[in-house]
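Morning!

This is the sequence you dropped in the shared folder:
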Amino acid sequence: MTLTETGKRAKETAGVLGILGSDKKNEGLRAAAAALLEGEEDILTANQDDVIQATINGMSAGMIDRLELTPSRIEAMADGLISVARLDDPVGEVISMKARPNGLTIGQKRVPMGVIGIIYEARPNVTADAFGLCFKSGNCVILKGGSDALESNKAIVKCLRAGLKNAGLPENSVQLITDTDREVTKEFMRLHDYVDVLIPRGGAGLIRSVVENSTVPVIETGTGNCHIFVDETADFTMALDIIFNAKTQRIGVCNACESLVIHRKIAEEFLPLLKARLDERQVEVRADEEACRIVPAFVPAAAEDWGTEYLDYILSLKLVDSIDEA
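The structure's back. Tokens below.
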């Protein structure tokens, strides 16, 4: 199927979804969740093919963690759709109403955008998340996932579409672009006759590429460089537990901690404790000059370290004098 054909199908379906009632949308989300659980074996088999190929290609441990699915992760995907079904329906909500001096009353009312395109990296759980949020808000979605997760995404979308069909709803509410050619991705960014808004979800490189190449309006998202600030009044035990969990629980997720900002007044006492705790998982700390003098085992940080999303057992660390400086 060509991109134009995909776009036409999406545009036709968007007209149906835009007027679909809350009960039918929620029924569709629950049916899609049930289909994910029913298709668990097929999804895991497809995902294992992706993981094996990614390992052969030398993908990092953090990225493989993003890519890999388990029964519990598939269950979480299904639970996510159920949770979305429980949310209030945003369509039709009036968020403001003002009377003008000439007697006109002007208000703002939430309506579906139409067709949403989403380009994202090798995170198959995003496939279900993106569908659920778009469907709940009355929008049709065209998905373009990372090539490393292609087989996983195909299996997931097949289940989502089956669930919609079981509920008597249009399968083309969600479509997946399976051509991995980069030129196809660029063509997707320029499908302005059919796509109403494009959302990139991923690292800085992906977001920059979409912003620079798209002729479709883009909602630009942020990258996942998450910071933790440890103040001079912090409980050391709690701070160490939070940092250890935020960095090491899953290094490949976008809310993993990548940077630490530590109050200078506690550095002499806190940094050796931090080093000992992070050594349990061999986390490399790239620190500023002063922190390296306190803990010589820290690696001197380069300028680019302050803005890097490592997706690895690496942290940047900088000392500051106040929360304002942090």
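Headline: The chain is about 45% helix and 15% strand.

More detail when I'm at my desk.
O.
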